[in-house]
Amino acid sequence: MSDAGHDDHGHGDQSPFIQHHYDDAQHQFDSGKFGIWIFLAQEVLFFSALFVAYVLYRVHHGEIYSYAHKWLDVKYGAINTAVLIFSSLTAAWAVRAAQKNQKTLLIACLATTIACACGFLCIKYIEYSHKIHEHILFGRYFDPCVSPGGEELLTRKNMCPGSKGSVIWDAGSDKPTEGCFEASKLDLDTKLAGVQADCEVQIVKVDEKGKEQPGGTPVTNQCPDELLTILNGSEAGTGKELVKEAAPKFPCWRPAYQPQVCPDLTTPEQRNHGAGMKSQVGILVEFGDHEEREGIKIKAKCKDASAPKPMDALALSHEKPTEHVGERAIKPVHHISTHEEHEIESLGPPPEHTSMFLTIYFAMTGLHGVHVLVGIFVFIWLLIRAVKGQFTPDYFGPIDFAALYWHIVDLIWIFLFPLLYLIH
Amino acid sequence: MATTEAFPESLKSLPQAPVTEPDFLHVSKGWKSWAFTLDHKRIGMMYLFGILFSLLLGGSFALLLRTELWSPGRTIVGPDTYNQFFTLHGAVMVFLVIIPGIPAALGNIIMPIQLGAPDVAFPRLNLASFYLWVSGAILLVLTIPFGGLDTGWTLYTPYSLETHTAVMVATMGVFLLGFSSIFTGLNFLVTIHKFRPQGMGWFQLPLNIWAIYGTAIMQVLATPVLGITVLLLTVERFAHIGIFDPTMGGDPVLFQHFFWFYSHPAVYIMIIPGMGVISELISTYARKPIFGYRFVAYSSLSLALLSFLVWGHHMFVSGQSRLANMVFSALTFTVGIPSAIKVFNWVATLYKGDIRLKTGMLYGLSFLLLFTIGGLTGLFLGILSVDVHLHDTYFVVAHFHYVMMGSTLVAFLGALHHWWPKFTGRMYNESLGRTCAIGVFIGFNTTFLPQFVMGARGMPRRYWDYDPQYQIFHQISTIGAFILGISLFIVVCYLMASFWTGAKAARNPWGGSSLEWQAPTPPTLYNFEKPPIVHELYNYDDLVEVAPDRWERLSDAPEYQGAVPVASGSKEHH
Amino acid sequence: MADHADHHDDHDENEISHVASVKTLVGTGGTLLFLTILTVLATKIDFGANINLAIAMVIAVTKATLVILFFMHLRYDRLFHTVVFVSAICAASLFVGFTLMDSSQYQHTNIWTPSEPPAAPIGPRPTG
Amino acid sequence: MKRVLPVLLALFIGTSAYAQAPGGSAVAPTPANAAESVPKADPTSGSNSPTMGDAGSATTGNNQATSGSAGTGSGSAATSNAPAPAGAKGPQPKAWYDVLADKPIEEQGTFWMPKAVNQAADESDMMFYAVLALSIFFFVAIAVAVVYLTIKYRHRPGHKAEPSAAHNDVLEITWTVIPTLICVFLFWYGWHSYIRVVTPPNKAVEIDVLAQRWNWTFTHENGVTDSDLHIPANVPVRLVMTSKDVLHSFYAPAMRVKQDVVPRRYTYAWFNATKPGTYRLTCAEYCGTSHAQMACLDVDPVTDHCNRRAVVVVHKDLEEYERYLNDKVADQMNMAPVDLGKMLYDKKGCSSCHTVDGSARVGPSWKQPDWGKDIQIVGGTVKMDENYVRESILYPAKKARPGFPNSMPPFEGQLKDRELDGLIAYIKSLKQ
Predict the structure, then answer these.
(1) Model's pTM, two decimal places?
(2) Interface with A, mutate which of B24, B41, B213, B240 (most A CBs under 10 A)
(3) pLDDT tens for each residue of chain C, 128 residues long
(4) Residue B1: which residues within 8 A CB-CB, separation 6 or more?
(5) Same domain membership, residue D154 and residue D20
(6) Do residues D277 and D317 both lie within one domain?
(7) How far is CA A416 from CA A58, A128, A131, A142, C61, in A?
(8) Residue D139: inside a domain
(9) ipTM given for this complex
(10) Residues A120, A169: one domain?
């Protein structure tokens, strides 16, 4: 991105792009090279703040990272890394071509670099649009549809067919109230088996003015809780097959954690500041055939939870004892456990403020994406100048400096990829 | 002003103004020649006018602020307007005046000539930095019609996330100003490295250039963190990403770490160019070489590096842990040492000199006194137990005004008067200059000395309404503020007036020994008509005053052309 | 990319700055791709979160040094450019280090989940 | 501007005291505030806050510039007895502890600082005076050197600069080593006394502090809440602080204590008050419009100056503090709803945004003549009755009145039902 551009009156036989206040081409190139290196130092500092945020939240709240990394697709990340490395190679090659005055090779390399960069942005677009659709976003917009599921990604389509929008939770033991269960009323064993509840569920038609039609159809059977079958089916392998062939009859209901579902019970401060309260759980009806259901209302009458299940070994190991250090009671920060435990934990509802991981993810990859975009424009401008044949063995500065900028952008992605995608 | 030293009459006939080609002011006409200029001197002058205007704007907010504090409760405005006064005063002064002040305005004009270079390394980047500064300034000033800004120049969250004032306009303005500062720093680093003439090694560089070098390092390595912080704050406000918002898991103390990691080097970006200028003023007007050149040069550099270690002392009581408080308090004291060394060296330079009390020297001497008070009161705030009582009180306000205004702005005015004849070709009115220098000194001390006492007595900062026991101090401070304001306004007036009424300036009115005094007054487009001769640094024996405010080098006299002046320094090229 | 560069004069020269040979370019590119695949495979084996992170970082640092030395010509370039880049890395790591040191000291006083604030003596004792 | 002459006089005496005070204390840095006779603070004397008096008289009373004597300034007690503050006309007289809280703030102390009342603070005071002496010494040395050298070597006809050494390594080393040693000492001693200031003893009276936009709420161990901090003397008190919205800072100058209050986090402060009395309590971290008037109970109608801000009331001993806790709980229990409402109007800082005389301030006035009729709200009308008032207190944004800024924090979870009924009763009682 340096600006050693061109000026009409050069120094005699040298390339016309050697500016007059430089002694010669070497002086201009050395100044430009030193300038771009300072610019790269500034870029490192520009990204350093985001690395600080990343390190801080990983050290203090590792549980968010081990939970939320399931939403990042390692396949896409790996392809992007390969694409960027290849474009870095072609950029370096373009410099060589310019130095040796091989004009066609120069143009080919520049074109490939631009193509790869655009490829990188396309893959980025796919990832982002997927997350936006799934509401796996930062801050207030973090509202993923989460429920116990099998191996594949917990996307909205396969695991939460019931349309979230139109389903209005109706629950409560004795007096029927709008809204959802209080955490205390349910055996909320978030770590293990999801939510247990004993309710009669009814689907009631609702016309467009929101008035309920009489005579709702009861939903008798409860969807089998895949998670329970996984765990009780001894090794993980058999558990999955078990779930597949005993396909539940649709529609079936099951309790699920649905953070954004109960706006009216959250306090105004919570509402305009964060996703709904974790402790609010509701009833989700699954229709199994993937299209959204409009104009229906789910009414559920549930009995209070039975005595809480005895904690088994895995859950007990999760109970974090509060250590007393001198007069300070410190609840130990999440000690990073094995990958397998993460997998089970990541099936339950998300830990508090999981949106922070997505904030950091979007900030880092977003800022990096902007730098890739800027790189594309710079290379297009260089391509135009290369086609016009302005680069000669004694004037190839812009190519070299743009390549250096591109290598730094690649360097930052080389660190972003393992830090964000390969979390254990 | 008879001088004992005899000098050949031919010295009097040496040309002062440019001979072979027109000077840079008249080489081309029309606003386009200024708007799209690549000449570092014109860009520097455009910066200078912008900065002087911002100084008057920021100063007027200060006067409104002080008038409101004349009496407890409402004097002229309500609390919300007062909050906007002190915020805009802080933001305009810090981002528009003090940070670009000496490096961008005077640095752009003088540094390349002092280096003997035709121009800065990247002229177009230099112009781009200026327009970044202009657009940033416009955005910052645009906050006023869009609802003002009432978060304090520090923009602390979560208040800056919730207030309904134009925070986003301000943060975008600061973002652009940050990049203007980065690119200026980058430009100067490359220029100092790659454009030194033959025979000017690192230890033949004037101390002003050492200071600008140290400043450029900080500008390049610290300002990007301000860029990312301000960008995150803007995104946080409109997209609620939650990184600084405690209700969504964010951490306000994390914002303070991000902010002060930049802002402490920023306060050194403000003071170190001032120190560089002071070394030039003291040495030239005392006709004595700087005492301990290497120590002063190394202390500029060490200050630049140490400034990255101490940002935590702004956060002793803001929720920072005790361990971090201890570490930052210890490191803060290491930063005090280089400044002390500099002050001792300047005082030692005055010994056995021939001190001429021109306006520049008056500002230089008042810098010495005011910077000493500023530095010493920093000791109070560095000690943890004393800082618990003094933090966020008027003691801190007085301390940083002594360092920012009392030192940097006084050095800026000294530098302005010192180099004004060189780049405008006009002399300013000396008597008016001296009275205003004394006016600034008296006004400044009347304004801020009472604030030390008020702060120690527990008067918190940014208070619209205060207990009546502080009224007496506020009244004295307001009177001082008006004296200061008037003096500064007169300075700007007579400097502008000097364009028309000023006497023609000589090539070397003050007898300076560095390269810029060999350039014609005002310099040509590429600064020198004939390549400058690098003389021994800060050596004034060769200079003699041929007429009032006109010095010549004996070796320049035609008779002595034979004797080649001793060109010191190794042949090392960059 | 058909490499129709002239093979015979292997020692490429350019009076302005160093020319990277095709061998170094392709070699570095290949190694980088290989290391990428390696780091992805490494996540399949479960050494425990910390060690996995360490492996990923070691691979990332090696890839980074490869890019800097060969693609960015730092090995053949003026030493001062390395000084500039390393000082940027130092400033950034200083920033990370100090902030982490501070925040890990006060993290236990944070009210991370509003419904379960930390117990006394960190939080307030239950008032009557 | 009516008293310019004494102002300048005060400055010069001030500066002279400025020069003297530390000199005196620098020699023998015994704590400047040696114990001196404590004017018996009679809790029942009902004189009102000093700041009610007009600006001029109150200041000379308090600041010790004129006394000129170093060390113990003879702070004269409060000035003239201003009319009882508005609202005191209520049926029963103010409770004894409120009278104690309204007592004028006597801030004796040296020219520089109010007298330290916190046991752990004496060390930091000594530190302050030591560094003050050090700074004065260095400043005077450099100033004299500069002035002397400028005069001695000023330019005059025939005077030339004599050559002198351009550098002297020995001199340079000395004036590098000496400042370094001083700095190491300053750091070590500062750190040593800082640790004592921030480490609370294990057994301390714990008080929970909730800071919110523009008032403090202190909750004692028996559940009593108050907007003034009542503490026993000579007993260590530990504050566990958190903020409801933005950053605030608990700053009691006499206690030499300052600690920011961060939302969604606990921060701590502790002190051990040695002398009973009433001391200033201010917010030191910028927090918006009424940052300068945290928990202001009595606003001067003309200049909006806050006469009575939240204060730290130090009771004689633990027994009187217990008496305060019990009386307060009792008063809150059997207080008539209207009086409870009136007390909350003052204590919760409602006066800083709502008036009771019909004129609008930041928010609408509580004197609502059209009680029971429909009133205009944003997007429609609603009947002005108990439910509307209750809901607007808990969730102000729901049915906001047009033309007012939406800056009132929701009080849901803040007020007990009894307090809510009291407020509504008080608002209703104002309608005539």
Answers:
(1) 0.81
(2) B240
(3) 334 444 434 457 788 888 888 999 999 999 999 999 999 999 888 887 788 899 999 999 999 999 999 999 998 888 999 999 999 999 999 999 999 999 999 988 888 888 778 887 788 887 75
(4) B545, B548, D157
(5) yes
(6) yes
(7) 14, 16, 18, 22, 12
(8) yes
(9) 0.83
(10) no
